[in-house]
Amino acid sequence: FFTRDDEHQVATGGHYLNCVCTDWTYFYSIMFSCVLLVGLLVLYMVWDVNYFLRCVVTLGYGMLFQRKRKVTEETSIYSLCTTQDVDIFIRHMNNARYLRELDFARFHFYGLTGIYGKIKAKRGGAVQGASSVRYRRTIPIFNAYKITTRLVWWDEKAIYLEQQFITLSDGFVRAVAMSKQCITNVNVIELMKEFPGAEQRPEKPAELQLWLDSIETSSQKLRKDK
Q1: Once rounded to an integer, what is the mean pLDDT over residues 155-170?
Q2: Pairing mode, if any, of strands 144-154 and 158-167?
Q3: Which residue of 1, 80, 162, 204 shows the fewest CB atoms closer than 10 Å?
Q4: Which residue spans traverse the membrane (predicted)?
Q5: Would you say residue 140 has pLDDT above 70?
């Protein structure tokens, strides 16, 4: 039989064991948090995590909350010039960020119009073959803007997109970009016939023709240099 002293010792021992378990649980939780933080730090150092997160958010929002667009319609995404976007003077968006933002707008266009899905269904692919950006005026820090994307022309091997950066405060076009998206393993003219309103190609813009001429001139020069 237990005496009162025995009962006191058992109770005291149980309390001690409970304290030890609590301490170890706290220790493991701290260790897990440290490992998680270090893992995230390494992940951010090795990968451009924000780029992939932005792609997922932009595409996800477009697919879930925005209506589908015809391939001939214009699409828009919205953003803000933050401290991660500015140049060394911390006053406005740096030039490299424009090209990065164009990626998100282009992926958004692909998703809403369904053109990339049809390309993949035909076992094709899309890769940027050329781009040209004209900077008209800077985008100041903490200014909101939108990027519009529209298909302006296509040939057998590529589609051509025009994209504009427009600040919301004044509606001014801060920059305009033209890009050539090369489509692999798919005849683009035949592909476009599957989209309503794109059965016939529009007239080629004059600025696009001049840009393509400059690309061809550069290509010929590089071939001669070999």
Answers
A1: 98
A2: antiparallel
A3: 1
A4: 26-47
A5: yes
Distance, CA of 37 to CA of 34 (rounded, Å) = 5
Backbone angles phi, psi at 184, to 5 degrees: -95, 145
**Tens-place pLDDT, residues 36-65:** 899 888 888 888 899 999 999 999 999 999
- Same-domain pairing of 18 and 40: yes
Query: Which residue bears the tokens 């792609």?
Result: 55
Q: Do the domain assignments include residue 129?
A: yes
Rounded Cα–Cα distance for residues 226 and 213 (Å):
21
Give how many domains the chain has, as a whole number. Answer: 2
In this prediction, residue 30 carries a pLDDT of 84
What pLDDT, in 10s, does the model give residues 63-84? 999 999 999 999 999 999 999 9
pLDDT at 10 over 50: no
Annotate 27-49 with b (16+ C-beta within 10 A) or e (fewer): eeeeeeeeeeeeeeeeeeeeeee
3-class SS at 42? helix
pLDDT for the residue numbered 195: 95
Our separate counts of H helices and E strands in the chain read 6, 5
183 and 90 co-located in one domain: yes
For 149, the token pair is: 């994307």
This model's pTM is above 0.90 = no
* Of 181, 188, 55, the residue nearest 119 (C-alpha): 188
Q: Is 73 in the same domain as 132?
A: yes
Q: What phi and psi, each to the nearest 5 degrees, are found at residue 143?
A: -100, 135
Query: Range of 102's domain?
Result: 49-208
The full length of the chain comes to: 226
